[in-house]
Amino acid sequence: MNEPSQALQALGPAVQHTHLTSLPLLARGKVRDLYAVGSDRLLMVASDRLSAFDVVMKAPVPGKGRLLTQMALFWFDKLSGIVPHHLSGDAPESVVTPAEVPQVEGRAMLVKRLTPLPCEAVVRGYVVGSGWKEYQKSGTVCGIPMPAGLSMTTPLAEPIFTPATKAAVGDHDENISFAQLCALIGPARAEELRSTAIRLYQAAHAYALTRGIVIADTKFEFGLDEQGTLTLMDEALTPDSSRFWLASELAQGRIHALDKQPLRDWLASTGVTGGAEQAALDLPDDVILGVYERYAEACHRLCGGDE
């Protein structure tokens, strides 16, 4: 057995899907399984499923769901002074049977049921990804005019807010203008969403820098509680929803991403970047391990103690 295979085996079995019989299953997303807990709460369980280009891969990453949950819980607590979050304060293990506890322990959140806003709040501190492609063509990012001469490693003078519609599993999110967002959720709510998302990004970015990480961009999801209060939901500031770069590498003009970049690179080398053909691929062990190691480093740096 080669070294990557041995390292993956040491992580223990992966959780591809959860199977809780004590609660009604509402949905399986790209990563999370969602169960109803009465009429006012939800149990969100982070599996080890791995997705890229909006397609769930055949192979999971052992332990990934636990890392995602640890980071999300950390950020919900750290940023709670800016906006309320959806955590109920109750232990996820309290709503399943004793036999089901191993399926949820360390990888679940028990949350309040909210009315989700039909959009994603994306904040960008750098021009990268789809924004970089657009910038090269038109000098804009999501229709917003940008200064000339930017590179992917050039920080923006101020972060920009680029909302998107929320797509179903397997579909692509679509960027929309702020005017379209106003039409979708109302001007006052759109302004609140934009200012809140930018404040969250700025606070998280400042903290991450002290841990040697640059948050290049991120996306947030919000809902409304029964009083109509804007509330942070789903997850926040994990490698699944953000681009984390090592600050030491960025200072040298290089990008070393603490996310699923090993998977993206490998898929690009195969020429397959979407659809059923991608979903059927067997991933090499070194690619799976590479994703785990980058997620684990991000988690350790951001959530660990003093270095």
What does this 3D model show about the protein?
With 307 residues, the protein is of the alpha+beta class. It has a single domain, classed as 2-Layer Sandwich (D-amino Acid Aminotransferase, Chain A, domain 1), CATH 3.30.470.20. Helix content is 35%, strand content 20%. The chain contains ten helices and 15 strands. The protein has helices at residues 3-10, 64-78, 101-104, 130-138, 178-185, 187-210, 247-250, 261-270, 275-279, 285-303; strands at residues 25-28, 32-37, 41-46, 51-52, 55-56, 108-112, 115-116, 119-124, 140-141, 144-145, 160-161, 164-165, 213-224, 230-233, 242-246. The strands form four sheets. Strands 7, 8, 11, 12, 13, 14 and 15 form a seven-stranded antiparallel sheet that branches. Strands 1-2-3-6 form a four-stranded antiparallel sheet. Helix 2 (64-78) packs parallel to helix 10 and helix 8 packs antiparallel against helix 10 (285-303). The longest helix has 24 residues, at 187-210. The two termini are 34 Å apart. The mean pLDDT is 93.
